Amino acid sequence: MTKKTYFSLILILGSLTALAPFSIDMYLPGFPAIAKDLNTSAAKVALTLSGFFIGISAGQLLYGPLLDHFGRKKPLYFGLALYIIASIGCVMIKDIDSLIILRFVQAIGSCAATVASVAMVRDLFPVKDSAKVFALLILVLGVSPMVAPTVGGYVTAAFGWHAVFIVLTAIGSVLLIATLLWLPDSYKPDPSHSLKPRPIINDFLSVIKEPQFYTYAFTGAIAFAGLFAYVSGSPVIFMTVFKVDEKVYSWIFAFLSIGFIGSNQVNSLLLRKFRSEQIIPAALTGLVIIGAIFFLASVNGWLNLGLTITFLFFFLSCIGLANPNTAALSLAPFSKNAGSASALMGALQMGMGSLISVIISAFDVSSTVPMVSAMAGSAVLASLVYMLGKRTIKERVEVKESVEAGLMH
């Protein structure tokens, strides 16, 4: 694989991976405007975010078998087309219930890009490089939380929140064209992967019964729920509790993304000297310590804007260290059914995220306590799952080279 090919693959796969997060982050500064324009509450607007998370979680389970049966590109074409149609619908809605439904449909479309890109990492790159490739994808992915809310804040201020979905429609269209023209076929269709419910369920069961998968996938998903707690709670926390405007919030969100993105790149350097199995417990320990102090500061009323940003920065940094390593180790035991494995891993992440976002929207939005409690709780629970799950792994598949490098056709 040439450097040019390697770079183009990382760029396209990273952009596909970033589609769903970009769809989440870009409209966050518009929460107050949406609530006012649609004559509803901030909590009801937050349900559009929950609907998106639920759609991604359910959709990934759908696309996993489709990606293994039809190959990677056909389901990807369908998902991107569905995303574009739903985004156009979001531009034209007049009530909050329609927006919730269309956000769900939009998520169903976007998660095809998420599942396909993760599965194609396993298709296109040797296993020993997978953690590094995931880290590079997250570097591209990192453009989303830095750019999306900033662009969204200015677009909302200048043209209204409907314009955000016009931009998202354009992004989906560009990705569809890039997929058609430049993304290689990385996996031959395998009709032996049945699309009937029973074989699909059995396929997922065979994945989830693998001790290495359920240990690292659940650990990663629960830790990642702390990120979703932050995403769900931050618009109200910063714009209602701390009284910052849309533009200031977008810059705060962008700054905090540096912690998450930067730690992913630090992880690439750490992997030169340490194994993923060594990095994960260190990151989880950091999450628990920071989460506990953050929780105490919140319940005792010690938090101000500066302290909140500081705690969030270091908490997200620890998630950024853990995530690429748990993802790589979750998928390492699989090759033939990597699509199903990546779909199940993504569904677990988004399922946890949707649960957290619904819970937070049900509590008092004038306090930092619900968001911080969810973040601290996710850190503790992820650490417990990791410690218990490690005991069940008898034959560990490490992140080492087990397949030949190069494109697979």
From TrEMBL:
Its main location: membrane. The chain crosses the membrane at residues 45-64, 76-94, 100-121, 133-155, 161-183, 213-242, 248-267, 279-297, 303-322, 343-363, 369-388. GO terms for biological process: xenobiotic detoxification by transmembrane export across the plasma membrane. The keyword Signal does not apply. It is a multi-pass membrane protein. GO terms for cellular component: plasma membrane. Residues 9-394 form the Major facilitator superfamily (MFS) profile domain. It is found in: Cell membrane. InterPro entries: Efflux_drug-R_Bcr/CmlA, MFS, MFS_dom, MFS_trans_sf. Belongs to the major facilitator superfamily. Bcr/CmlA family. This is MFS transporter, DHA1 family, bicyclomycin/chloramphenicol resistance protein. It comes from Pseudarcicella hirudinis. The lineage of its organism: Bacteria, Pseudomonadati, Bacteroidota, Cytophagia, Cytophagales.
